[in-house]
Write a structure and sequence with these properties.
2 domains; 73% helix
């Protein structure tokens, strides 16, 4: 699985919430392309600073804890969990 595929989960959740919040209807690729830049601008931090790539084992563990489709309000808890796992693997 590629890094891009791993990051698509959070991107999909953000995208779906954004569509509902803004009332945007996406019917085809042209609609996606039309709204893409606005979505990215509004979620730059989440997409470029907060997103991480996990190995399959940690990805599965994260979903075991937070569910198949983790609620967006758990993002800070998920980030803390990732930080703890990183610390366990990179003890100095």
């Amino acid at each position: 699985m590629s890094a891009t595929e791993l990051k698509l989960g959070i991107l999909t959740l953000l995208w779906e919430k954004w569509k509902v919040t803004t009332g945007i209807s996406i019917d085809d690729v042209d609609d996606v392309m039309f709204h893409r830049d606005t979505f990215i601008a509004e979620h730059e931090k989440e997409l470029y600073e907060d997103a991480v790539t996990l190995c399959n084992g940690h990805h599965v563990k994260l979903h075991t804890i937070y569910g198949a489709k983790p609620a967006l309000h758990t993002a800070a808890k998920q980030a803390n969990w990732v930080k703890i796992q990183y610390g366990k693997l990179h003890k100095e």
